[in-house]
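can u pls check wat happens w/ zinc ion
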Amino acid sequence: MTVWICKTCGAQHTPSQTPPAHCAICEDERQYVGAAGQLWLDRDAITASHANDWREIEPGLSGIGVVPTIAIGQRALLVQTPEGNVLWDCVPMLDAATMDRIKALGGLKAMCFSHPHFYTGMVEWSEALGGVPIRLPEVDLAHVMRPSPLITPWSGDRLDILPGVTVHRVGGHFEGSSVLEWAAGADGKGALLVGDTIQVTPAAGWVSFMRSYPNMIPLPARDVQTIADRVAELSFDRLYGGWWDKVIASDAKTAIARSAERYIAALA
Ligand SMILES: [Zn+2]
């Protein structure tokens, strides 16, 4: 049996002898099947030709990507706290060095996510690290491509993971799209980990919000306002998006508020 990884989105699928016929993640209007059709990668082959890239970002926060880049190219974030570690988002593969390094840090208490495009290798990671609880919003369970008994759904709008680590479901891109509020981040001013629930844009100090980024489908004003209102209640100064360079180092709350205002004005 082979673990097949969708080449376009990076989602691992339920192991099978031959590649699956479809990737439901990519057939959804928020992703895409490219002109060459549905393509697959073999997890074992990828593990031989690729590695995880680990970068310490600030005290208590590391990023873990894949090199060379595959699929959407995001990096996961490892949040370390005195009560244990949490993985925010995931990448399509886990190498032995990274597994050992996480174990040496005490392992993971939980894995949680911004949205289904970053579920990717979550079951492989959880199993390799001893059965880490995979916490997914129940409203997005239909987007799981590799079901596992390690997946523990949660409902509502708030999930307290550990002291100082809280996931808030704000919706938008997906119904379960979430952000992680990390109290100790940014020297205690707080950091918000967002994936692409909120997308950092090239102009310094601005963000955007979309139903589909590759297909450029916007969100309705009410959804953008909901995201802006929800995060305005949280404590943070810094924002980490889903990629290495998608960071707003300070005053991120102001950036979100003015970006939401601009977006809603453009829709009107
Ligand atoms: Zn896919």
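The chain has one domain: 4-267.
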